[in-house]
Amino acid sequence: MRVEVTIEEPGDTEEVEVIEVHVAVGAAVGEGDVLLEVATDKANMDIVAPAGGTVAELPVAEGDVVPVAAVLAVVET
Predict the structure, then answer these.
(1) Mean pLDDT, the chain, whole residue set
(2) Residue/partner pairs of 7-10 with CB below 8 Å, 24 or more apart
(3) Which domains does the chain have, with CATH numbers?
(4) Average pLDDT of the residues in 31-38
(5) Lower CB density within 10 Å: C or N end of the chain?
(6) pTM tops 0.90
């Protein structure tokens, strides 16, 4: 099963900047592992894996500014 990782509670912000990517495509992750860190205009937040599995896609890179609805990663469970 493919699980798309997005920002769960974006608040009032419309876009985020990817500050740091902690995983690579093909990496094994556990539920709750930090995949990447993003910054809003108010705070930084960790984006975590919603389930254990393998990172199948990572369509963002450090420095990217993306809409809050964007898919940040895909985990294959």
Answers:
(1) 94
(2) 7/38, 7/45, 7/47, 7/68, 7/69, 7/72, 10/40, 10/68, 10/69
(3) 2-76 (2.40.50.100)
(4) 97
(5) N
(6) yes
pLDDT at 10: 67
Strand, coil or helix: what is 4? Answer: strand
Do the Cβ atoms of 19 and 34 come closer than 8 Å?
Answer: no
**Cα radius of gyration rounded to whole Å, the chain:** 11
The residues, ordered by sequence, that sit 6+ positions from 53 with a Cβ below 8 Å of its Cβ are: 3, 28, 29, 75, 76, 77
CA geometry: angle at 45 spanning 49 and 20, to 5°?
Answer: 75
Which of the four pLDDT bands, split at 50, 70 and 90, describes residue 17?
very high
Q: Residue 5: count other Cβ atoms within 10 Å of its Cβ.
A: 21
